[in-house]
Amino acid sequence: MPTPPRPDAAPGMETVHLLRAVAVELGLHSARFANQNGMHPTDVRALIALMDARRAGQEVTAGRLGAELGLNSAGTTALVDRLERAGQVRRVRGERDRRQVVVEVEERAVELGQAFFGPLIERSLELLRGYDDRQLAAIRGFLEGVREAAAEGRE
């Protein structure tokens, strides 16, 4: 009777293991940034969420930020207070609804992030320039699918 293949020998597992290794390295890279700047790793995740929202033209309330990060109300308030004291974010009235208070990332935080993460971003872009449009679409589709699969358990 033939030996069944090991689960880690299944097609694609090498890619899954590599993706896991990339996630670990990116987490460590982010932790170094947090450590060098006296931040908690959650602070970095919050700043990324706020920069992504800014790039998409979206306003972010503290409640929405907390939901994205999986924090309760008290934890979110402590996070925003900490980032505000550090000059990383500011609370302002919403443009769409002046009754809402939204959290915006300060330009100082963007510049700090660009200084640290810029070389990694540039290297990533350099690597991507080696792929054609079809290959880039496949990479994008794979990464979007993995992100969606990971987010399924969030709610």
Summarize the model shown.
The chain has six helices and two strands; from the N terminus they run ααααββαα.
Overall description:
This protein has a two-stranded antiparallel ribbon. 65% of the residues lie in helices and 6% in strands. The termini are far apart. It is elongated, with a radius of gyration of 19 Å. Strand 1 (89-93) and strand 2 form a beta hairpin. The mean pLDDT is 93. It is mainly α and 155 residues long. The protein has helices at 13-36, 41-55, 62-69, 73-85, 107-128, 133-151; strands spanning 89-93, 101-105. The longest helix has 24 residues, at 13-36. The protein is built from six helices and two strands, in the order H-H-H-H-E-E-H-H.
Terminal CA distance reads: 44 Å
The oligomeric state of the chains shown is: single chain
Number of helices: 6
Widest sheet, order of strands = 1-2
Largest sheet: 2 strands, antiparallel
Residues in helix, %: 55-70%
Write the H/E string, N to C.
HHHHEEHH
Counting DSSP E segments of at least 2 residues, the number of strands comes to 2
Mean pLDDT: 93
Roughly how many Å is the radius of gyration? Answer: 19 Å
Percentage of residues in strands: 5-15%
Structural class category: mainly alpha
Low-confidence stretches: none
- The backbone outline, from C-alpha atoms, is elongated
How is the secondary structure organized here?
Layout: H1 13-36, H2 41-55, H3 62-69, H4 73-85, E1 89-93, E2 101-105, H5 107-128, H6 133-151
Helix pairs in contact: 3-4
